[in-house]
Amino acid sequence: MITSLWESPVLTAELTGDVLARVAADPRMLPDLLPAGHPGRDLTWTSRTEQWNGGYHAGLRHGTGAWCALLVLDARTDAPGTLSGAVILHDPRAGSANVGLPGLPWGRPVTLTTRPGLLAVVPGWLGWQVAPVLAEDERTVLTADTA
To answer: Could you tell me the pLDDT band of residue 62, with boundaries at 50, 70 and 90?
Structure first.
């Protein structure tokens, strides 16, 4: 089940083992996971697998197309419950952190703990970053963008 986090189309889902394995083997299945009517369903997606090892972190990033997806394939950790390798979504527009009501239009950043099966689909303009990965941790993430 995909859950909308904001009025704008930011979607998250927890993929089960068999679905996760199928999408990992064939990333072209990714658009099929989007709800009917989602504008990303009819677009061409390109993907790559990234390894986020201990010490890795990423500052502000954006997708390269209209939509960006992150799918956590594996998340090895020796310190569960930490924010190691978490994905932080935030509005990159100046002044967005000062919005009075969270969610209108974006509000405060949202932190997604990276665990196997986590899928996040966000508009390409939305900013995101990766919190530092602890030395003993690693993440394998499929990142995808619409062409």
So the answer is: confident
pTM of the predicted protein model: 0.84
pLDDT tens track for 126-138 = 888 999 999 999 9
Q: In 3D, which of 115, 51, 54, 117 has the Cα closest to residue 87?
A: 115
Q: Which CATH number fits domain 3-146: 2.60.120.620, 1.50.10.20, 3.40.50.300, 3.90.1150.10?
A: 2.60.120.620
Of 45-49, 76-80, 115-119, least confident by mean pLDDT is 76-80
* % of the chain beyond a pLDDT of 90: 51
Q: What is the full DSSP assignment across the chain?
A: --EESSSS--EEEE--HHHHHHHHH-GGGGGGGSPTT-GGGGS-EEEEEEEEETT--EEEE--SSSEEEEEEEEEE-SSTTS-TT-EEEE--STTGGG-SSTTSS--S-EEE---TTEEEEEETTSEEEEPPPPTT-EEEEEEEEE-
